[in-house]
Amino acid sequence: MANEFLTFKNANIAEGFTIAGIKEKEGRLGDLYDVTIKDDKCGENTFEKGERSMFEYAIKGLISKANLEINDIGAIVGGDLLNQIISSTFAARELGLPFIGLYNACATYVESLIIGAMMVDGDYKQRVISFTGSHFSTAERQYRYPLELGVLRSPVSQWTATGIGCTLISSYNSKLARISRGWIGKVVDYGIDDVNNMGAAMAPAASDTLIKIFTSTNTKSVDYDLILTGDLGKLGSSILRDLTKQEGYPLGENYLDCGNLIYYDDQQTWQGGSGAACSPLVFNSYVLKNIKEKKLSRVLLIGTGALMSPTSSFQGDTIPTIAHAVEITSFDGGV
Amino acid sequence: MANEFLTFKNANIAEGFTIAGIKEKEGRLGDLYDVTIKDDKCGENTFEKGERSMFEYAIKGLISKANLEINDIGAIVGGDLLNQIISSTFAARELGLPFIGLYNACATYVESLIIGAMMVDGDYKQRVISFTGSHFSTAERQYRYPLELGVLRSPVSQWTATGIGCTLISSYNSKLARISRGWIGKVVDYGIDDVNNMGAAMAPAASDTLIKIFTSTNTKSVDYDLILTGDLGKLGSSILRDLTKQEGYPLGENYLDCGNLIYYDDQQTWQGGSGAACSPLVFNSYVLKNIKEKKLSRVLLIGTGALMSPTSSFQGDTIPTIAHAVEITSFDGGV
């Protein structure tokens, strides 16, 4: 009964904007970000206030890059990893734009693209900005330990990326790309309870959504120029390769993970990047650049999220996870 | 440039379902809830696990009440007040349905109605369930103090309602009502920093959205059978009356607040109810009942949310607030 996927005819991607942290600047995609910060607190007196100023800066930066005014934007749609998504909220307060707050952990960016695409394609708003991001220092102390404790990190852990990415979705013509399809994920839980090992926890959700994409559209991995997961990291993306292969849908060299793309191997992130910044940082820099240069025309972006809280973990729960997906089609491509 | 409101032609409200707590059962609307709990933990060993079981029960109850099967539902859209919206997430895990997680505090229910209406009206899904809820005992210990401390409550405080409400939005004909319009709120902050006094903090957001409704549709208070705010409580709704009157849009006897409707005066809630349960509990019992009985045909529901976190308050921030709104029209009414 339920549609397997959402079809969008007029959800154009007009522009993207990224602001990245210091470690991310030193990483593989360091030259591709629009702006990088020089101070982890961005001149504020707490990491949290620094994070929120990055959200505000990124959204204003996108509006300016697209040669628009603030009132040209119908709504901003997004969230972050902090409790009560305060970074997004306080940025929205400064911007004064209609605000839809979301939370699906690190899958929130793709969730925001789906909601933004519905809003524009369904003719409810002409222009919407979808956004998310994260900050290493705020996430560490909320989800794990204060940095000052100097706790050793597990070899299966990932590094929460610092950065914000945002995307302008428009009903007006764009020569860049459009969001052509969306898949809303289910909550999947394979019983992993090691909160350091989120890649392993999230891989089954990514597999569930990927298999649904392939079966619902009668496609295979080779039909896409790029299949990109959000933040499975090295271990998680290796597990995803195993899981999809078992189901008869092996992934080839066109499969990459945003968490693996952000850092060099010698940057001591262990399994690579994680966090709500991974997919928006990579999508709005690397992916849009390659679409602009006609090197990519059909891309699957699968946002992956680990949905536990410290409270649920303390109460003995395993890690529930989710994976939302969008198909991006360049205007030279076409489905 | 931006549309002032969203217009929906085919977002039908097919059915509603409520599950309420013990104190709520003893309140003004006690006889109208579908189910009430007898044990604050619902047989689980923590309040948090009790809360999540209420979410699962409510959504299953709605599907059953509407004579549908679980796979007839295209997506569930909602959230709750706990960090990382774990109550909604773990319920979604048990249900196995595509899940969109939202957070705009106590405005999340109306936010979920707007997203659900877009999803159905835009023909992306045939049937969506919008839901939210809250639980006194989990919210108190997360946002304020553990109950065991027995901290005295401020006279300006409100009582977080225990309950879940959910609504089936369908593209199929309904003889009940439809969501005809939606307004996405902006984040408003008038500088209130007393986290006990959320009614006063949220009243300016409700006023901002209400004035926008009246001016964008050229209507006044008397054009609606009922104008209902979410959880301003006694003090907050009195401030809202003052603010809207100053702007030339006085509210009459058709203005009520869900937080004020839930409890009797002698139930020691001080300023009345608050929490993400208020608007879905009242809407899916009292409002839908009166629409069914042809006593209401045009209703404005304004969800109000206080978007601070304990962290933002500890860091000296004031309380940012938001108010989303929907217009509900019965099939005998018509705009």
Describe the structure.
- 2 copies of one chain form a homodimer.
- With 335 residues, the first copy, chain A, is an alpha/beta fold.
- Chain A has helices at 22-25, 47-65, 86-95, 108-121, 136-143, 198-217, 233-246, 258-262, 278-292, 310-314; strands spanning 6-7, 12-20, 35-36, 75-79, 99-101, 127-134, 159-160, 163-170, 177-183, 226-229, 255-257, 273-274, 298-306, 321-330.
- In chain A, 34% of the residues lie in helices and 22% in strands.
- Chain A is globular, with a radius of gyration of 18 Å.
- The longest helix of chain A is centred in the middle third of the chain and has 20 residues, at 198-217.
- The model of chain A has no long low-confidence stretch (mean pLDDT 96).
- In chain A, the strands form 2 sheets. In chain A, strands 1, 2, 3, 4, 5, 6, 8, 9, 10, 11, 13 and 14 form a 12-stranded mixed sheet that branches. A two-stranded parallel sheet of chain A has the order 7-12.
Relevant terms:
34% helix; 335 residues; two-stranded parallel ribbon; alpha/beta; 12-stranded mixed beta sheet; homodimer; 14 strands
Summarize the entry for a quick read:
Two copies of one chain form a homodimer. Chain A has 335 residues and is an alpha/beta fold.
